[in-house]
């Protein structure tokens, strides 16, 4: 993705967001930003700029509010229990549509895809979400082409990922897209992400 302005990536935070949906991609993208010659900026923001309490109790203080975040090249919309409220929140859905109009790359983690579907962003497009939320995704928009196997689905200007830890894989893919495979591999080594589950 070429752009004259420095790359700006915004990670949305909200009450009842799943912790790893937020901090997994943030860790990858911020680690990349610290070493990249592109000098990308990674910011967190909440709807009103206030602190949020995530699904399992982690409190986060964002950098700014949605109204003040400014232009983004990439939006990361996490999932979590809070998405069920957001997907029926007309103001939030209108905001998502407005961001779609100005943001080159819209991404979601886990049930963040439900919000995108409710906003109409996934109509007729391939997408994925948490395996336990597939039925909800279909209900939100029956035209979505749901991929139940992929860790993430890249459909050009929209990238969705499966549940929770899959956001890390998606974020590494974004690094490869935005800079290079070599940069993504260096970032993966830097955070020592080399899954070999013990069970």
UniProtKB/TrEMBL annotation:
SUPFAM superfamilies recorded: Class I glutamine amidotransferase-like (SSF52317)
Domain DJ-1/PfpI: 8-176
Pfam families (UniProt xref): DJ-1_PfpI
InterPro entries, sorted: Class_I_gatase-like, DJ-1/PfpI, INH-QAR
Superkingdom, natural source: Bacteria
Protein name: AraC family transcriptional regulator
């Amino acid at each position: 993705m070429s752009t004259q302005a420095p790359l700006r990536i915004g990670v949305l935070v909200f009450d009842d967001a799943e912790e790893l949906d937020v901090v997994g991609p943030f860790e990858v993208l911020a680690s990349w930003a610290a070493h990249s010659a592109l000098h990308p900026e990674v910011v967190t923001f909440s709807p009103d700029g206030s602190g949020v309490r995530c699904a399992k109790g982690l409190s986060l203080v964002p950098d700014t509010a949605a109204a003040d975040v400014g232009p983004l090249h990439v939006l990361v919309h996490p999932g979590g229990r809070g998405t069920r409220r957001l997907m029926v929140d007309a103001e939030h859905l209108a905001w998502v549509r407005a961001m779609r109009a100005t943001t080159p790359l819209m991404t979601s983690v886990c049930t963040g895809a439900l919000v995108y579907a409710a906003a109409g962003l996934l109509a007729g497009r391939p997408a994925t979400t948490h395996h336990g939320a597939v039925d909800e995704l279909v209900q939100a928009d029956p035209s979505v082409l749901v991929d139940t196997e992929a860790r993430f689905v890249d459909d050009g200007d929209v990238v969705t990922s499966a549940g929770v830890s899959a956001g890390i894989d998606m974020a590494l893919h974004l690094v490869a897209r935005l800079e290079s495979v070599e940069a993504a591999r260096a970032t993966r080594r830097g955070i020592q992400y080399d899954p070999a589950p013990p069970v």
